[in-house]
Amino acid sequence: DKYCNISQATRQKIFMHLQDDRTQASIALDNCVSPSTICRYLDNYDDLFRRNYDYLPEHLAMDEVRGVGGQLHFICI
To answer: Total structural domains in the chain?
Structure first.
C-alpha cells in the first residue's frame, strides 16, 4: 500500500494473530494499531478463511440430542 505506515512485519504478525482464538481488540493492543485496522485486514484476508462448500468433508458426524423441553435437535459436525 502506497500510503500505509504500518510495516510489513507488523502486517504479518497481525495475520498470524488473526489465526488465533483472540479478540480483535487484543490483537490491536498487542500490535499498537486500532481495532478498525484489524477489521480491515480481516476483510482483506476473508477469502483465505472462507471454506469451500462445493464438496463434503471426508468425515461427517451426525447426532440427535434432546434439548430444552424434551425437543429433539439434529447436530451435524
So the answer is: 1
Specify if 71 maps to a domain: no
Q: Is residue 15 part of a domain?
A: yes
Domain boundaries, position 46: 1-51
Query: pTM above 0.90?
Result: no
Residues 37-55 as b or e (16 or more Cβ within 10 Å = b): bbeebeeeeeeeeeeeeee
- pLDDT tens digit at each of 77 positions of the chain: 678 889 989 999 998 998 888 999 999 999 999 999 999 888 887 777 677 778 877 888 889 888 888 888 888 87
